[in-house]
Amino acid sequence: MVVVRAGLSPERLTRAGAELADEAGFDQVTLSALARHFDVKVASLYSHLKNSHELKTRIALFALEELADRVAHAVAGRAGKDALTAFANAYRDYARAHPGRYDAARFRLDPQTAAASAGVRHAQMARAILRGYDLAEPDQTHAVRMLGSVFHGYVSLEAAGGFSHTDVASQDSWAWTLDSLDAALRRRATP
User: Fold this and answer.
1) pLDDT at 26 over 90
2) Omega of the bond prior to 138 within 30 degrees of 0, cis?
3) CB within 10 Å: which end of the chain, N or C, has fewer?
4) What confidence tens digit (pLDDT) does each residue in 49-72 have?
5) The pTM is what?
6) 165 inside domain
7) Is residue 110 part of a domain?
8) Could you give the 3-state DSSP secondary structure of residue 71?
9) How wide is the angle at C-alpha 122 spanned by C-alphas 118 and 123, nearest 5°?
C-alpha cells in the first residue's frame, strides 16, 4: 500500500522542481533531489509522479506556460519594432530571473505533448509580431526560427558569461541586435 504524504501533489512537486531548477540547474532536478527537498523517501513521490522524466516534462510545461503569459502581457497592444523589442525583452528577462525554468522550456517534449503545450502560443505570438513586417511564407517561418535562434543564443551566451570579456555593455549589444533584426525584417517585407 502506498501512503500519500499530506500536502504533496503533482502541482506542488512541479513548482518545487521549478524552484530547484532555478537554484541548482535544470539538469540537477531529479526525484531524489526533490525527495531531499521535502525530507521524504523517493518512493513516496511515486504516488504523484512516474519518474524524473515526468517531473521534467511537467516543469517544462509549467515554464512554457509561465513564459507565454509574460510574453503575451509584454506584447499586448504593441506592433512593429515595439512588439519585437517587448517580445525579446520578455524572453531575456525571464531567462535572467528563472534560468532553470528557461532551460526547462527547451526540454524536448514528445510531439503530442508539445502540440498541447504553451509552446504553440509562443509560435503564434511570434507570427503575430511578424504580421507587422508583412512577411509571406516561407519567409515568415524562416523569421520565426531566426528570432528563436537569436534570442536563445544571445540569452544562453550571456548567461554563460560570454559577453563579460569586453568593455562593451551586453545591454548595448542587445539593443544593437534588436535594431538589426528589425531592419532585416523590414527589408524582407513583401512588396
Assistant:
1) yes
2) yes
3) N
4) 899 999 999 999 999 999 999 999
5) 0.90
6) yes
7) yes
8) helix
9) 115
Averaged confidence pLDDT in the chain: 92
Residue linked to cell 526547462 = 104
Residue with cell 503575430: 128
Is residue 139 one of the residues assigned to a domain?
yes
Q: What's the alpha-carbon Rg for the chain, to the nearest Å?
A: 19
50 within domain boundaries: no
Number of structural domains, the chain?
Answer: 1
Residue 79: CATH number of its domain? 1.10.357.10
Which is it for the CA torsion 70, 73, 76, 78, positive or negative? negative
DSSP structure class, residue 44 = G
Burial call 79-93: b when 16+ CB within 10 Å, e when fewer: eebebbbbbbbbbbe
> What per-residue confidence (pLDDT) applies to 6?
53
C-alpha cell at 166: 569586453
Amino acid letter, residue 178 = L
C-alpha cell of residue 17: 522542481
Cα-based distances in Å from 153 to 20, 32, 46, 115, 147: 23, 31, 36, 24, 10
